[in-house]
Amino acid sequence: LREGVAWKTFVRKHAEWQVSFNEENAKPHRAYGTGIQTIGTSLERRAMNFIQNELAGFTIPVNDLVHMAPASSRKHHHVNYYQNYKGLKVLGSRLTVKMTKDYKVILFGLDVYDDINIDIEPAISTVKAIRVAEEGMVNQILSTTVSPDLFVIPVPANKKNEYHLVYEILVNTTDDLG
């Protein structure tokens, strides 16, 4: 993946950067290096300008990104996004940009997916999903709750992902000690 066009293009401009790739989505899981100056009137704008200008070769689904509240510490600003697919949250997705206090990017991560192509109509009802979730429980079930939202989950499969539509169900049980 380091030999790919996107990374080679990036390191041509920023030679001192290092990377660890997410092999399933073929994008940097974490890349870090000497600060890269950003432009913009807000943290989010600076991060988005960096994403669109410096990371364009990584085919980031920018229109699917949902901004999370920025976080700052004494030394850094963190701008994070999660991904939606056709209005459904993609579980485990995260695009992160870490900047110094003078707004230079020193780290980014691209755990987002540009190859999702699934039907967002559930194949089973919530009642059936609850039944399956409770199946095989040996201890007493105290309660079961299902999120009203559906989600998309990427499942690693031989250096790519398979995508599934899922319910989020919490089954509350007792253990052997009560």
Can you walk me through this structure?
The protein is an alpha+beta fold and 178 residues long. The chain is built from three helices and ten strands, in the order αββαββββββαββ. It has helices spanning 5-13, 43-54, 126-134; strands at 18-22, 27-37, 65-67, 71-72, 76-85, 88-90, 94-100, 104-111, 141-156, 161-173. Strands 1, 2, 3, 4, 5, 6, 7, 8, 9 and 10 form a ten-stranded mixed beta sheet that branches. β1 and β2 (27-37) form a beta hairpin. The radius of gyration is 20 Å and the shape is elongated. The protein starts with a helix and ends in a 5-residue tail after the last strand. 19% of the residues are buried.
Compute the average pLDDT: 95
Rounded to the nearest angstrom, the radius of gyration is 20 Å
Oligomer: single chain
Shape: elongated
Share of residues in helices: 10-25%
Order of helices and strands: HEEHEEEEEEHEE
> Can you count the helices?
3
Unreliably modeled segments: none
Beta-strand residue percentage: 35-45%
Number of strands: 10
What is the CA–CA distance across the termini? 50 Å
Structural class: alpha+beta
Strand count, sense and barrel status of the largest sheet are: 10 strands, mixed
